[in-house]
Write a structure and sequence with these properties.
Cold shock domain-containing protein; alpha+beta; 5-stranded mixed β-barrel; 1 helix; NA-bd_OB-fold; nucleic acid binding; 2 domains; OB fold (Dihydrolipoamide Acetyltransferase, E2P); 21% helix; CSD; 151 residues; single chain; elongated
Length: 151
């Protein structure tokens, strides 16, 4: 005959597990009984008209109605400002230009920003310290001066 596979150690571990389960069930029942005695039930948190959490319900007179069409999903369209309507032709001074490499830099007279220019964006031949007019164009590394002409 074969011996039982249940060893003393296995039986003791099973007893401990059973005891833990029973204790947990007793604590759970005690919490339920305590909640019934208090009678408070579930506590509520309200959100007032400013978006703050409170324990009192919000005032219905301060409620505002929102139409479903007024809700914008995503990024709202940008409105044109005075900055967007600036003159595309800007004035500046050539701070550096290398004819052998075909590029240089122009400093804007209005905001002292430095813009890159390439020989392909020139209308007239320029040298250092020339006063020029130009337009800006978005390039790979920032704004570039194009349509550069001497003043």
């Amino acid at each position: 005959m074969a011996k039982s596979q249940q060893t003393y150690n296995k039986i003791e571990k099973e007893k401990q597990r059973r005891k833990k389960r029973e204790e947990k069930q007793k604590r759970k029942e005690a919490r339920r009984a305590e909640a019934k005695e208090k009678g408070g039930g579930i506590q509520f948190a309200y959100v007032d008209h400013n978006g703050n959490l409170t324990d009192t319900p919000p005032d219905p007179t301060q409620k505002t109605l929102v139409e479903a069409e007024d809700i914008v999903l995503g990024i709202p369209k940008k409105e044109e400002t005075d900055e967007d309507k600036f003159n595309p032709i800007r004035n500046g001074k050539v701070s550096f230009f290398d004819h052998s490499k075909g590029f240089g830099f122009i400093i804007d007279t209005e905001n002292n920003e430095k813009y890159f220019t390439h020989v392909s964006g020139l209308i007239d031949e320029i040298v250092e310290n020339d006063t020029v007019s130009f337009e800006l164009e978005k390039g790979a590394r920032g704004m570039n001066a194009v349509k550069v002409s001497k003043i």
